[in-house]
Amino acid sequence: MSRPWMPLYVADYRADTAHLSAAQHGAYLLLIMHYWTTGGLPKDDAAMARIACMSPAEWKRAYPVIYPFFEGDWTHKRIDAELARAADISRKRAASAKQRHSKCDAIAEQLDTHARTLPPSQSQKKEDAPGGATSAYAFESGVIRLNERDFTLWKASFSHLDVPAELLAMTQWASEQRSWFNAVKGALAKKNQQAKERKTAGAEFKWNGIEGVL
């Protein structure tokens, strides 16, 4: 699991570590960062000294001051609790994403029932009417021709997109597809899902997204 950041309440950290020297602060922070990213610490002094960026002699002097922040086997209860919390949030977000994808598949299946492919029926072709040429299509650009029912359904289903603009941008590409309707519909469904996830991620993003204290 990728953990690019870790929760840290500065006031609490400062209160717990006021007795540390600058070097000891650096060593302790490096150790808990390693713990957060890997899930634990090695048990031998040579490896711990390397993680703390200290020489063996420096680590030997810092050890008695830093060790009390950990349990007997170099575990850290507070970090373990935060790791469990982060894993729980990750599971919930994965389940939510799966549910969104399932909804997208359901929309695609619904659109399949209304599929229209070339050539269009006579009722869909351009007709002449008094006052000038008119069209029975609600949207038409190249091979992309949608009647009122399908155009309305697409705008409702892909509500995170500017559907007319997307269709215009796809006109040339659609002409190269074997079945323009299904190809365009699938492309819109994918773009709509991506746009929705970007908006959701933007709304949920917080630098201190997981509450807790180290």
What structural class do the secondary elements suggest? mainly alpha
**Physical arrangement of strands within the biggest beta sheet:** 1-2
As an assembly, this protein is single chain
Unreliable spans are 117-131, 210-214
Overall tally of domains: 2
Strand coverage percent: 5-15%
**H and E order:** HHHHHEEEEHHHH
Q: Please provide the count of β strands.
A: 4
Q: Termini, distance in Å? A: 19 Å
Biggest sheet features: 2 strands, antiparallel
Q: Give the helix tally.
A: 9
What Rg, in angstroms, do the CA atoms define? 30 Å
Helical content (DSSP H or I, runs of 4+): 55-70%
> Average pLDDT, to the nearest integer?
82
Précis, in short:
This protein has 214 residues and is mainly alpha-helical. The protein has helices at 10-16, 22-38, 45-51, 56-66, 77-112, 148-157, 163-169, 171-175, 180-204; strands at 127-129, 132-134, 139-141, 144-146.
Question: Can you walk through the features of this model?
Answer:
- It is a single chain.
- The two termini are 19 Å apart.
- This protein has 2 domains: 10-75, Orthogonal Bundle (Arc Repressor Mutant, subunit A); 95-204, no CATH class.
- It is rod-shaped, with a radius of gyration of 30 Å.
- It has 9 helices and 4 strands.
- It is mainly alpha-helical.
- The strands form 2 sheets. It has a two-stranded antiparallel ribbon with strand order 1-2.
